[in-house]
Amino acid sequence: MTDHYDALETRDPAEREAALFARLPEVLRKAMAAPAYANLLRGTDPASITSREALAGLPVLRKSELPALHKAVPPFGGFVADTPGSFARLFTSPGPIFEPEGRQADPWRGARALFAAGFREGDVVLNTFSYHLTPGGFIFDASARALGCAVIPAGPGNTEQQFELIEAYRPVGYSGTPDFLKILLDAAATAGRDVSSIKRALVSGAAFPKSLQEEMKSRGVEAYQAFGTADLGLIAFETAAREGMTVNEDLILEIVKPGTGDPVAPGDVGEIVVTSLDPHHPWIRLALGDLTAALPGASRCGRTNMRIKGWMGRADQTTKVKGMFVRPEQIAEIGRRHPELGRLRLVVTRAGEADAMTLRAECASAADALQSDVAATLRAVTKLGGTVELVGTGSLPNDGKVIADER
Protein backbone atom coordinates (compact mmCIF):
# COMPACT_ATOMS: atom_id res chain seq x y z
CA MET A 1 0.00 0.00 0.00
CA THR A 2 1.60 3.28 -1.13
CA ASP A 3 1.91 6.16 1.32
CA HIS A 4 1.00 8.90 -1.15
CA TYR A 5 -1.83 9.57 -3.56
CA ASP A 6 0.57 10.35 -6.43
CA ALA A 7 4.02 11.75 -7.23
CA LEU A 8 2.77 15.34 -7.14
CA GLU A 9 2.64 15.20 -3.35
CA THR A 10 6.37 14.53 -2.99
CA ARG A 11 7.68 16.98 -5.60
CA ASP A 12 10.51 19.34 -4.80
CA PRO A 13 8.74 22.49 -3.48
CA ALA A 14 10.47 24.66 -6.08
CA GLU A 15 9.18 22.38 -8.84
CA ARG A 16 5.64 22.64 -7.49
CA GLU A 17 5.88 26.42 -7.22
CA ALA A 18 7.14 26.72 -10.79
CA ALA A 19 4.37 24.48 -12.10
CA LEU A 20 1.61 26.41 -10.30
CA PHE A 21 2.78 29.80 -11.49
CA ALA A 22 3.35 28.56 -15.04
CA ARG A 23 -0.38 27.73 -15.14
CA LEU A 24 -1.58 30.89 -13.41
CA PRO A 25 -1.40 33.38 -16.35
CA GLU A 26 -3.78 31.29 -18.47
CA VAL A 27 -6.16 30.90 -15.51
CA LEU A 28 -6.09 34.69 -15.06
CA ARG A 29 -6.94 35.17 -18.74
CA LYS A 30 -9.90 32.82 -18.33
CA ALA A 31 -10.99 34.63 -15.15
CA MET A 32 -10.87 38.03 -16.83
CA ALA A 33 -13.32 36.81 -19.48
CA ALA A 34 -15.94 37.21 -16.71
CA PRO A 35 -17.08 40.86 -16.28
CA ALA A 36 -16.57 41.08 -12.51
CA TYR A 37 -13.00 39.79 -12.70
CA ALA A 38 -12.33 42.02 -15.72
CA ASN A 39 -13.32 44.97 -13.53
CA LEU A 40 -11.54 43.79 -10.37
CA LEU A 41 -8.30 43.01 -12.24
CA ARG A 42 -8.47 45.95 -14.65
CA GLY A 43 -5.01 46.83 -15.94
CA THR A 44 -3.52 43.45 -15.00
CA ASP A 45 -1.31 41.72 -17.56
CA PRO A 46 -1.83 38.00 -16.85
CA ALA A 47 1.54 37.14 -18.40
CA SER A 48 3.29 39.15 -15.67
CA ILE A 49 1.74 37.26 -12.72
CA THR A 50 4.29 34.46 -12.43
CA SER A 51 5.37 34.67 -8.77
CA ARG A 52 3.95 35.05 -5.28
CA GLU A 53 5.25 38.61 -5.18
CA ALA A 54 3.35 39.49 -8.35
CA LEU A 55 0.21 37.69 -7.15
CA ALA A 56 0.31 39.62 -3.87
CA GLY A 57 -0.08 42.82 -5.88
CA LEU A 58 -3.55 41.82 -7.09
CA PRO A 59 -6.64 42.83 -5.08
CA VAL A 60 -8.29 40.30 -2.80
CA LEU A 61 -11.91 39.23 -3.21
CA ARG A 62 -13.52 38.80 0.19
CA LYS A 63 -15.87 35.90 0.72
CA SER A 64 -17.90 38.11 3.04
CA GLU A 65 -18.72 40.30 0.01
CA LEU A 66 -20.08 37.44 -2.12
CA PRO A 67 -23.71 37.45 -0.89
CA ALA A 68 -24.19 41.07 -1.95
CA LEU A 69 -22.33 40.53 -5.22
CA HIS A 70 -24.37 37.41 -6.06
CA LYS A 71 -27.60 39.23 -5.25
CA ALA A 72 -26.66 42.17 -7.47
CA VAL A 73 -25.68 40.01 -10.46
CA PRO A 74 -27.20 36.52 -10.03
CA PRO A 75 -26.20 33.82 -9.83
CA PHE A 76 -22.38 34.16 -9.55
CA GLY A 77 -21.84 37.90 -9.22
CA GLY A 78 -20.32 38.14 -12.69
CA PHE A 79 -17.27 36.10 -11.65
CA VAL A 80 -18.03 33.13 -13.94
CA ALA A 81 -17.79 33.51 -17.72
CA ASP A 82 -19.77 30.36 -18.60
CA THR A 83 -23.48 29.72 -18.13
CA PRO A 84 -24.95 27.80 -15.16
CA GLY A 85 -25.81 24.98 -17.57
CA SER A 86 -22.11 24.34 -18.23
CA PHE A 87 -21.73 22.89 -14.71
CA ALA A 88 -22.80 19.54 -13.26
CA ARG A 89 -24.60 20.66 -10.10
CA LEU A 90 -25.69 24.02 -8.67
CA PHE A 91 -25.77 24.68 -4.93
CA THR A 92 -26.41 27.43 -2.42
CA SER A 93 -24.90 28.17 0.96
CA PRO A 94 -26.07 30.60 3.66
CA GLY A 95 -25.74 34.19 2.53
CA PRO A 96 -26.91 33.17 0.03
CA ILE A 97 -23.79 32.29 -1.93
CA PHE A 98 -24.29 30.27 -5.11
CA GLU A 99 -21.74 27.55 -5.89
CA PRO A 100 -21.40 25.45 -9.04
CA GLU A 101 -19.82 22.00 -9.25
CA GLY A 102 -17.63 21.24 -12.26
CA ARG A 103 -18.05 18.24 -14.54
CA GLN A 104 -14.50 16.91 -14.09
CA ALA A 105 -13.57 13.95 -11.89
CA ASP A 106 -13.02 14.93 -8.25
CA PRO A 107 -14.18 18.53 -8.80
CA TRP A 108 -13.65 19.43 -5.12
CA ARG A 109 -10.10 17.94 -4.90
CA GLY A 110 -10.94 15.74 -1.93
CA ALA A 111 -9.57 12.33 -2.95
CA ARG A 112 -6.11 13.23 -1.62
CA ALA A 113 -7.52 14.10 1.80
CA LEU A 114 -9.39 10.80 2.03
CA PHE A 115 -6.30 8.90 0.90
CA ALA A 116 -4.18 10.63 3.56
CA ALA A 117 -6.77 9.54 6.15
CA GLY A 118 -6.35 5.89 5.13
CA PHE A 119 -9.28 5.47 2.71
CA ARG A 120 -8.55 3.17 -0.24
CA GLU A 121 -10.14 1.90 -3.43
CA GLY A 122 -12.91 -0.60 -2.66
CA ASP A 123 -13.73 0.85 0.76
CA VAL A 124 -17.36 1.49 1.66
CA VAL A 125 -17.82 4.99 3.09
CA LEU A 126 -20.71 6.31 5.19
CA ASN A 127 -21.06 9.96 4.16
CA THR A 128 -23.13 11.95 6.67
CA PHE A 129 -22.68 15.46 5.26
CA SER A 130 -25.91 17.02 4.01
CA TYR A 131 -26.95 16.42 0.41
CA HIS A 132 -29.75 18.99 0.42
CA LEU A 133 -28.99 22.09 -1.72
CA THR A 134 -25.60 22.71 -0.07
CA PRO A 135 -22.45 21.12 -1.55
CA GLY A 136 -21.06 19.41 1.58
CA GLY A 137 -22.43 15.94 0.91
CA PHE A 138 -21.45 16.04 -2.75
CA ILE A 139 -17.92 17.28 -1.97
CA PHE A 140 -17.14 14.16 0.03
CA ASP A 141 -19.26 11.89 -2.14
CA ALA A 142 -17.46 12.88 -5.35
CA SER A 143 -14.08 12.70 -3.63
CA ALA A 144 -14.67 9.18 -2.28
CA ARG A 145 -15.94 7.91 -5.62
CA ALA A 146 -12.92 9.45 -7.41
CA LEU A 147 -10.76 7.38 -5.05
CA GLY A 148 -12.71 4.24 -6.00
CA CYS A 149 -14.83 3.94 -2.86
CA ALA A 150 -18.52 3.04 -2.69
CA VAL A 151 -20.55 5.71 -0.89
CA ILE A 152 -23.60 5.40 1.35
CA PRO A 153 -25.29 8.83 0.92
CA ALA A 154 -26.63 8.91 4.47
CA GLY A 155 -26.68 12.58 5.29
CA PRO A 156 -27.02 13.69 8.93
CA GLY A 157 -29.61 12.46 11.41
CA ASN A 158 -31.93 9.42 11.54
CA THR A 159 -29.45 7.25 13.42
CA GLU A 160 -31.82 4.26 13.54
CA GLN A 161 -31.91 3.95 9.77
CA GLN A 162 -28.16 4.55 9.59
CA PHE A 163 -27.58 1.59 11.93
CA GLU A 164 -29.43 -0.64 9.46
CA LEU A 165 -27.23 0.55 6.61
CA ILE A 166 -24.04 0.15 8.64
CA GLU A 167 -24.91 -3.38 9.74
CA ALA A 168 -25.81 -4.35 6.15
CA TYR A 169 -23.04 -2.67 4.16
CA ARG A 170 -20.30 -2.70 6.86
CA PRO A 171 -18.64 0.61 5.89
CA VAL A 172 -15.01 0.92 6.93
CA GLY A 173 -14.95 4.71 6.55
CA TYR A 174 -16.94 7.69 7.81
CA SER A 175 -17.08 11.25 6.50
CA GLY A 176 -19.00 13.96 8.31
CA THR A 177 -18.70 16.25 11.30
CA PRO A 178 -16.86 14.97 14.38
CA ASP A 179 -19.94 15.82 16.45
CA PHE A 180 -22.21 13.50 14.48
CA LEU A 181 -19.62 10.71 14.59
CA LYS A 182 -19.74 10.85 18.39
CA ILE A 183 -23.56 10.96 18.34
CA LEU A 184 -23.59 7.89 16.09
CA LEU A 185 -21.16 5.91 18.24
CA ASP A 186 -22.91 6.88 21.49
CA ALA A 187 -26.34 6.02 20.12
CA ALA A 188 -25.09 2.67 18.81
CA ALA A 189 -23.62 1.79 22.21
CA THR A 190 -26.90 2.66 23.94
CA ALA A 191 -29.02 0.73 21.45
CA GLY A 192 -26.69 -2.27 21.24
CA ARG A 193 -26.11 -1.80 17.48
CA ASP A 194 -22.95 -2.96 15.73
CA VAL A 195 -21.03 -0.11 14.07
CA SER A 196 -17.61 -1.68 14.67
CA SER A 197 -16.87 -1.85 10.94
CA ILE A 198 -16.05 1.90 10.95
CA LYS A 199 -12.29 2.12 11.44
CA ARG A 200 -11.32 5.45 9.92
CA ALA A 201 -12.88 8.86 9.44
CA LEU A 202 -12.31 12.16 7.70
CA VAL A 203 -14.08 14.91 9.63
CA SER A 204 -14.67 18.58 8.94
CA GLY A 205 -17.11 21.38 9.62
CA ALA A 206 -16.65 21.59 13.41
CA ALA A 207 -13.97 21.73 16.07
CA PHE A 208 -12.14 18.47 16.69
CA PRO A 209 -10.20 18.93 19.93
CA LYS A 210 -7.48 16.54 21.04
CA SER A 211 -9.75 15.09 23.71
CA LEU A 212 -12.33 14.04 21.12
CA GLN A 213 -9.62 12.68 18.82
CA GLU A 214 -8.37 10.47 21.64
CA GLU A 215 -11.89 9.33 22.46
CA MET A 216 -12.50 8.30 18.84
CA LYS A 217 -9.20 6.42 18.81
CA SER A 218 -10.10 4.60 22.04
CA ARG A 219 -13.30 3.47 20.32
CA GLY A 220 -11.41 2.04 17.36
CA VAL A 221 -11.74 4.93 14.88
CA GLU A 222 -8.68 6.73 13.47
CA ALA A 223 -10.07 10.15 12.58
CA TYR A 224 -8.34 12.87 10.59
CA GLN A 225 -9.32 16.48 9.98
CA ALA A 226 -9.77 18.38 6.73
CA PHE A 227 -10.25 22.10 6.13
CA GLY A 228 -12.42 23.19 3.22
CA THR A 229 -15.11 25.55 2.02
CA ALA A 230 -18.19 25.27 -0.16
CA ASP A 231 -16.48 27.50 -2.73
CA LEU A 232 -13.17 25.67 -3.06
CA GLY A 233 -13.69 22.16 -1.73
CA LEU A 234 -10.84 20.61 0.28
CA ILE A 235 -8.08 23.16 0.91
CA ALA A 236 -5.84 21.35 3.41
CA PHE A 237 -5.87 18.05 5.26
CA GLU A 238 -4.27 16.16 8.10
CA THR A 239 -1.85 13.31 7.39
CA ALA A 240 -0.41 10.45 9.41
CA ALA A 241 2.31 12.82 10.65
CA ARG A 242 -0.35 14.67 12.70
CA GLU A 243 1.62 17.90 12.19
CA GLY A 244 -0.82 20.56 11.08
CA MET A 245 -2.53 20.25 7.70
CA THR A 246 -0.96 19.86 4.27
CA VAL A 247 -2.20 22.25 1.60
CA ASN A 248 -3.90 20.52 -1.32
CA GLU A 249 -2.31 20.36 -4.77
CA ASP A 250 -3.52 22.75 -7.53
CA LEU A 251 -4.10 25.58 -5.05
CA ILE A 252 -1.99 28.62 -4.21
CA LEU A 253 -2.48 29.49 -0.53
CA GLU A 254 -1.32 32.80 0.94
CA ILE A 255 -1.52 34.06 4.51
CA VAL A 256 -2.07 37.80 4.73
CA LYS A 257 -2.47 40.45 7.40
CA PRO A 258 -6.18 40.67 8.28
CA GLY A 259 -7.92 43.43 6.39
CA THR A 260 -5.21 43.60 3.71
CA GLY A 261 -3.75 41.56 0.89
CA ASP A 262 -0.22 41.83 2.26
CA PRO A 263 1.58 38.57 3.13
CA VAL A 264 2.52 38.08 6.79
CA ALA A 265 6.03 37.33 7.98
CA PRO A 266 6.87 33.59 8.01
CA GLY A 267 5.14 31.89 10.95
CA ASP A 268 2.81 34.80 11.75
CA VAL A 269 -0.93 34.24 12.04
CA GLY A 270 -3.00 35.80 9.28
CA GLU A 271 -5.99 35.39 6.98
CA ILE A 272 -6.15 32.57 4.44
CA VAL A 273 -6.29 33.70 0.80
CA VAL A 274 -6.65 31.05 -1.91
CA THR A 275 -6.19 31.09 -5.68
CA SER A 276 -7.50 28.05 -7.53
CA LEU A 277 -6.36 26.89 -10.96
CA ASP A 278 -9.67 25.66 -12.38
CA PRO A 279 -10.12 27.67 -15.62
CA HIS A 280 -13.86 26.91 -15.72
CA HIS A 281 -14.48 28.51 -12.33
CA PRO A 282 -11.30 30.16 -11.04
CA TRP A 283 -10.95 31.91 -7.72
CA ILE A 284 -8.34 34.66 -7.70
CA ARG A 285 -7.15 35.65 -4.21
CA LEU A 286 -10.36 34.68 -2.41
CA ALA A 287 -10.00 35.85 1.20
CA LEU A 288 -11.85 33.32 3.35
CA GLY A 289 -11.99 35.22 6.63
CA ASP A 290 -10.28 32.30 8.44
CA LEU A 291 -7.00 32.60 10.35
CA THR A 292 -4.02 30.26 10.27
CA ALA A 293 -0.22 30.23 10.28
CA ALA A 294 2.30 28.34 8.17
CA LEU A 295 4.45 25.63 9.75
CA PRO A 296 8.16 25.50 8.90
CA GLY A 297 9.92 22.56 7.27
CA ALA A 298 8.66 19.44 5.58
CA SER A 299 6.18 16.94 6.98
CA ARG A 300 7.41 13.61 8.31
CA CYS A 301 4.81 11.92 6.08
CA GLY A 302 6.89 12.79 3.02
CA ARG A 303 4.47 15.32 1.50
CA THR A 304 6.35 18.46 0.56
CA ASN A 305 3.60 21.04 0.13
CA MET A 306 3.10 23.98 2.47
CA ARG A 307 1.62 23.09 5.87
CA ILE A 308 -0.69 25.21 8.00
CA LYS A 309 -1.65 24.93 11.66
CA GLY A 310 -5.31 24.53 10.79
CA TRP A 311 -8.22 26.80 11.61
CA MET A 312 -7.25 29.42 14.23
CA GLY A 313 -10.30 31.70 14.34
CA ARG A 314 -11.93 34.37 12.23
CA ALA A 315 -10.11 37.29 10.60
CA ASP A 316 -13.19 39.52 10.42
CA GLN A 317 -12.88 41.30 13.76
CA THR A 318 -14.98 44.34 12.85
CA THR A 319 -16.58 45.85 15.93
CA LYS A 320 -18.67 48.90 16.74
CA VAL A 321 -17.25 51.60 19.04
CA LYS A 322 -19.39 54.57 20.09
CA GLY A 323 -21.79 53.72 17.27
CA MET A 324 -19.11 53.57 14.57
CA PHE A 325 -17.57 50.47 12.97
CA VAL A 326 -13.85 49.91 13.40
CA ARG A 327 -12.34 47.44 10.94
CA PRO A 328 -9.07 45.48 10.67
CA GLU A 329 -8.32 47.38 7.44
CA GLN A 330 -8.13 50.59 9.46
CA ILE A 331 -5.62 49.12 11.90
CA ALA A 332 -3.57 47.92 8.93
CA GLU A 333 -3.65 51.46 7.52
CA ILE A 334 -2.20 52.81 10.78
CA GLY A 335 0.63 50.29 10.41
CA ARG A 336 1.27 51.42 6.83
CA ARG A 337 1.53 55.05 7.96
CA HIS A 338 3.98 54.10 10.72
CA PRO A 339 6.33 51.43 9.31
CA GLU A 340 8.48 51.64 12.45
CA LEU A 341 5.72 49.80 14.33
CA GLY A 342 5.41 46.02 14.54
CA ARG A 343 2.25 44.16 15.51
CA LEU A 344 -0.79 46.26 16.40
CA ARG A 345 -3.81 45.43 18.53
CA LEU A 346 -6.75 47.68 19.24
CA VAL A 347 -8.28 46.79 22.60
CA VAL A 348 -11.88 47.94 23.08
CA THR A 349 -13.16 48.19 26.66
CA ARG A 350 -15.67 50.13 28.77
CA ALA A 351 -14.62 53.02 30.99
CA GLY A 352 -17.14 55.02 33.01
CA GLU A 353 -20.08 53.48 31.12
CA ALA A 354 -18.57 54.50 27.78
CA ASP A 355 -16.62 52.70 25.07
CA ALA A 356 -12.87 53.17 25.18
CA MET A 357 -10.05 52.22 22.77
CA THR A 358 -6.40 51.53 23.43
CA LEU A 359 -4.06 50.82 20.54
CA ARG A 360 -1.18 48.63 21.67
CA ALA A 361 1.71 48.92 19.23
CA GLU A 362 5.04 47.11 19.20
CA CYS A 363 8.12 49.21 18.51
CA ALA A 364 11.83 48.87 19.09
CA SER A 365 12.22 52.30 20.67
CA ALA A 366 9.34 54.12 22.35
CA ALA A 367 9.20 57.90 22.23
CA ASP A 368 6.61 60.46 23.33
CA ALA A 369 6.57 62.02 19.87
CA LEU A 370 5.83 58.67 18.23
CA GLN A 371 3.09 57.94 20.73
CA SER A 372 1.48 61.29 19.98
CA ASP A 373 1.80 60.81 16.20
CA VAL A 374 0.22 57.36 16.34
CA ALA A 375 -2.65 58.68 18.48
CA ALA A 376 -3.30 61.35 15.86
CA THR A 377 -3.29 58.73 13.12
CA LEU A 378 -5.67 56.56 15.13
CA ARG A 379 -8.13 59.45 15.31
CA ALA A 380 -7.68 60.37 11.64
CA VAL A 381 -8.25 56.82 10.41
CA THR A 382 -11.07 55.70 12.73
CA LYS A 383 -12.65 59.12 13.44
CA LEU A 384 -12.52 58.11 17.10
CA GLY A 385 -10.21 59.10 19.92
CA GLY A 386 -8.17 56.54 21.80
CA THR A 387 -5.01 56.08 23.79
CA VAL A 388 -1.81 54.56 22.42
CA GLU A 389 0.41 52.20 24.38
CA LEU A 390 3.85 51.47 22.91
CA VAL A 391 5.19 48.06 23.91
CA GLY A 392 8.36 46.13 23.22
CA THR A 393 8.89 44.07 20.08
CA GLY A 394 7.41 40.59 20.54
CA SER A 395 5.11 41.67 23.39
CA LEU A 396 1.83 41.04 21.56
CA PRO A 397 0.68 37.47 20.95
CA ASN A 398 1.07 35.98 17.47
CA ASP A 399 -2.60 35.05 17.06
CA GLY A 400 -3.72 37.19 14.11
CA LYS A 401 -5.99 39.31 16.28
CA VAL A 402 -5.83 43.03 15.50
CA ILE A 403 -9.06 44.08 17.27
CA ALA A 404 -9.84 42.64 20.70
CA ASP A 405 -13.31 43.52 21.96
CA GLU A 406 -13.13 43.03 25.73
CA ARG A 407 -16.41 44.70 26.68
What structural category do the secondary elements indicate? alpha/beta
Q: Strands of the largest sheet, in order across it?
A: 5-4-6-7-8-9-10-15-14
What is the approximate shape?
A: globular
Low-confidence stretches: none
Number of helices: 11
Tell me roughly what share of residues is in helical segments.
25-40%
Instruction: Specify Rg, calculated over alpha carbons.
Output: 23 Å
Task: Report how far apart the termini are.
Answer: 55 Å
Average pLDDT score: 94
The tally of structural domains comes to 3
Beta strand % = 25-35%
The profile of the biggest β sheet is:
9 strands, mixed
What's the number of extended β-strand segments? 21
Domain AMP-dependent synthetase/ligase: 119-275
Protein name: AMP-binding protein
Pfam families: AMP-binding
Organism: Bradyrhizobium pachyrhizi
Could you characterize the architecture of this molecule?
- This is AMP-binding protein.
- Pfam families: AMP-binding.
- Residues 119-275 form the AMP-dependent synthetase/ligase domain.
- The protein is an alpha/beta fold and 407 residues long.
- It folds into three domains: 10-76 and 247-315, no CATH class; 104-238, Rossmann fold; 319-405, ANL, C-terminal domain (GMP Synthetase, Chain A, domain 3), CATH 3.30.300.30.
- It is 28% helix and 25% strand.
- The protein has eleven helices and 21 strands.
- Strand 7, helix 9 (210-218) and strand 8 form a beta-alpha-beta unit.
- The longest helix has 19 residues, at 13-31.
- The radius of gyration is 23 Å and the shape is globular.
- The termini are far apart.
